[in-house]
Design brief:
heterodimer, A: alpha/beta, Glutaredoxin, 5 strands, 37% helix, B: alpha/beta, seven-stranded mixed β-sheet, five-stranded mixed β-sheet, globular
Amino acid sequence: MADRHLAPDTPELRARWGMFAWTKPNAKMARAIIARYPPGRQRSAVMPLLDLAQRQVGADTNTQGWLPIPVMEFVARELDMPAIRVVEVASFYTMYNLVPVGRFHVQVCGTTPCMLRGSDDIMAACKARGMAKGGVSADGLWTLTEVECMGNCASAPMVQINDDNYEDLTPERLDAVLDALAKGKTPKPGTQQPGRHTIEPIGAPTNLAAMVSANYDYRGEW
Amino acid sequence: MPRLTVDGISIEVPQGATVLQACELAGKEIPRFCYHERLSIAGNCRMCLVEVKPGPPKPQASCALPAAEGQEVRTYSAMVKAAREGVMEFLLINHPLDCPICDQGGECDLQDQSIAYGRGKTRYHEHKRAVTEKYMGPLIKTAMTRCIHCTRCVRFSEEVAGVDEIGALYRGETMQITTYLERAAKHELSANVIDLCPVGALTSRPYAFEARPWELKKTLGIDVSDAMGANIRIDSRGREVLRILPRINDDVNEEWLSDKARYQVDGLTARRLDRPFVRRDGKLVAASWDEAFAAIAALNPGAWIAAIAGDLVDCETMFAAKKLANALGSTLLEGRQTGLAYDATNLAAVNFNTTFAGIETADCILIIGSNLRTEAPLLNVRLRKAVKAGAKVFIVGPEWETTYKAKFLGDDAALLGDLPGKAGKAMTAAARPAIIVGGGGLAKGALAPALALAATWGVVRTLADGGAWNGFNVVHMAASRMGGLMLGYAQAGGIADVVAAKPKLVLALGADEVEYAKFADSTVVYIGHHGDKGAHGADVILPAAAYTEKPGTYVSTEGRVQFADKAVFAPGDAREDWTIIRALADALKVKVGFDNFAGLRAAMVAEVPALGVEGLVDYGALSAAPSGAAASGRIAYPIQDFYLTNPIARASATMQRCSAELLHGVDFAEAAE
């Protein structure tokens, strides 16, 4: 997170993104988003609009998308608010990419539960495939970021790739997911453990086992 | 009106007060960084923690906690002491220990409060955060590693200045304060963030490494860069003025100051006239005082003398020159150098009657021919407050970038006779309507139609609560204007009358905006301090004192009489203006009736008693509008370059750079350090 920074505001950047405008479906969507908020409070739509803009940039560049300065200024104009306020929001949340990313943005969770379950191996597997933190890989497919807890501790370790989570990973399972993505397939999101559906206990329940079949009052045993 | 106890002292505080304000009312000092009386409450520095009962058993941020009935506040319990020490320790974790090379040293809130409320030692041995420098323009020097993220500067630019250009990027430990894309801060009050900054993150660039605050002599003065009469503190060392800071005066400048008033000081040492000059064979050559006076006496002007007052002169100078002219039998006095010739027989009609504090409460304002951002930036701040409170603003004149919602009606002065229905309706419906006429409007004869409109709308009225309301205002740009008008520096036809009278001798009192070509047949004696336009057009130059170098009386555009003290001596052979005029009287063999400054002031007060009393002058009732008066022509604003409006600013390297960089877009590469 500490290395987040804005992409430099160069004439090339202006030339590439200065004419940014909503596509027709996105324009409709933007209107619908702005209409969610009461009159005079349109600025509240800044976060969904930034997300929409990031996705449109992604569609334009066939990547996960990012927010060039001229695009943020476009959002500011749409909402009639100062550009600095938009940049403040965009730079605060890590979900907004401030620099170009690859087709797949691999966000490896490295917080304690994931680390205990082997996130170091996951990270190493990513690096072994040629990804480097913060940058885009040579083939333009991958951007690697280490992130903090994504809330999937029960199925650690996990990575988030674009909009989907892949959990219960081992280096092999991760390779399978990444290979599938690279081939243009859509691997099943969620847990990669065979036989597991979501985050239910693997095998038989170990805690509150007496509650499985019927309601049971544990209070006497406390 | 909740009643609470602070450290055992029982006090009653106004409804809506915070615990911090209650503590201050009880005489307790609460340390703070982010809280500022004139900004919104942020509550992010946590330095103002106190113990409050009833409430959760933990310290509470007093700045954001409403005072409530029956609260028991402790400001110096063991819990509070520990909390303050803890907060201070956290703030200092990432604050560099560079006080010896920091310009804030000696006037730093963090320094003072860490002495008073912090632990003696550090327990932190890890690496400190470092932040890259941010460019904020020619006036603000940044050292962002020192920033403690109080966000006062962000709130100032958003709330007071009305220009959103400073923001806090990123988050948490990596949060950084910056201007948008590190462009220069481009509004006329930008340097106030330097005063607001509680640490040395934002310091003054022109004043960098000049002096420590304890070396400076502090003199109370009045600003002359516009007609607001902002209260200033002149900090000088030896014979040099090093900086100017605002003084708090809620009726005038609150605690802000325009960039020009603050940073024209380096002009006080440049292009100075430090010896008399006399024109010989078309060239100005240095002379002694005796030679200069002899040259003037040889003219033997008799009654053919005129005095033209410049924009920066004090009342004493104008009064002395008036006495000299009167002694010679002349009443040719004029101060409106650029040819304005509005009717000045009723001073209430050319005064800012609502007062600066009062205009905040107006609910509908019509501005006629004034770009307030350049002509009176501090007044613009007041208008922004009025608009935030719900006032409507209509402007007749070319469009300018307002810092509040305003409707431009058009730039033709003739509009005053035929205002769009909406503006007229809003003014008629308003409870506290106000009209502001600026220099651009005065030039097109808007004063009389504005008075007619004032009568139509009844802007002078008794309010529902019984208070008096006078909504008719004229905003001037010259610090000397109201004082000059009070002393009779106004001819019916303006300066054209002076030209037509063909005086043999013209006393130019720091008058630098006059077209001297029109006085080709007269001998122009320039009594002033800078080698500017006035000196170029002069035949004799008598070097005088600038506003920091003489005591003086100034009347602001709201008719407020204020006294300034002398901070330093004028350079070289230059003398205080009144002594020059007194000596000139001897050379011309007339008596002016005073021999010292006290005598001069006493004579002035005897003639115009209002000038002897600090405060607002009562100019009486507003005159009726002359019938059938109409304004016409496209309004143009008199100030083209905000940073270069007077001879001091024009001589200032800082102001020249501001003008080039901020107004004309010249790119100044940052020198590598």
